[in-house]
Amino acid sequence: MEPGLDRRRAVPGTSLPAPQPARGPYQIQAAINAVHSDAPSESRTDWPQILVLCDQLFALSPTPIVALNRAVALAEVNGPAEALSLVNRLDLTTYYLFHAIRADLLRRLDRTEEAAQAYDAAITGTENAAERAFLQDRREAFSRVR
After folding, report:
1. Residues 97, 85: one domain?
2. pLDDT score for 2
3. In this predicted model, what pLDDT tens digit does every residue of 73-113 receive, in sequence order?
4. Angle at 137 between CA 134 and CA 141, to 5 degrees
5. 82 and 46 in a common domain
6. Which of 13, 25, 78, 102 could pair covalently with 118 via S-S, beta carbons 3.0-4.6 A apart?
7. Are 72 and 118 part of one and the same domain?
8. Count of domains in the chain?
9. Are 115 and 103 in contact (CB under 8 A)?
10. What are the Cα distances from residue 116, in Å, to 104, 112, 125?
């Protein structure tokens, strides 16, 4: 057996390393979830690691939804302006979370009127009462501040 080779990872009866399973989208999604779960608090989330994982996921599944989720991580790493630029290029106007994420990014950029409109679109776009209540609370809190 070669020095440094972990016997538990070798093909039995050889000194060849066992093939490692390819990382697929489900493994990457699980890794993203694990990074979120491992954070001791929201403020200590490892957003750079999540962004790396989102980049990997996007390479495997380049869908608008993956790009939208990547934009959330991008906003935490590079700021809301870069993320908003990405979000605004996505064709997801019928998806309420597109509007919710866009509203949050606009709020963080102090673009109040646009943020209010995006919150309204998100509220209108969901049929889930809990989501609607959450978004209404966010919009009301945002409106009180401005």
Report:
1. no
2. 47
3. 999 999 999 999 999 999 999 999 999 999 999 999 999 99
4. 145
5. yes
6. 102
7. no
8. 2
9. yes
10. 10, 6, 14
* Residue 11 placed within a domain: no
Q: What are phi and psi of 24, to 5 degrees?
A: -100, 180
> Do the beta carbons of residue 61 and residue 69 sit within 8 Å?
no
Stretches in the chain below the pLDDT threshold 70: 1-21, 145-146
Identify the three-state secondary structure at position 15.
coil
Amino acid in position 23: R
CA distance 139 to 124: 12
Task: Name the residue type at position 18.
Answer: A
- The boundaries of the domain holding residue 120 are 93-146
Token pair for residue 93? 């106007």
What gap in Å lies between CA 15 and CA 46, rounded to an integer?
37
Measured CA angle at 37 (ends 134, 53), to 5 deg: 100
* Domain presence at residue 13: no
29 part of a folded domain: yes
Structure tokens at 9: 């990872």
CB of 131 within 8 A of CB of 96? yes
pLDDT at residue 5, as a whole number: 46
One domain, residues 71 and 118: no
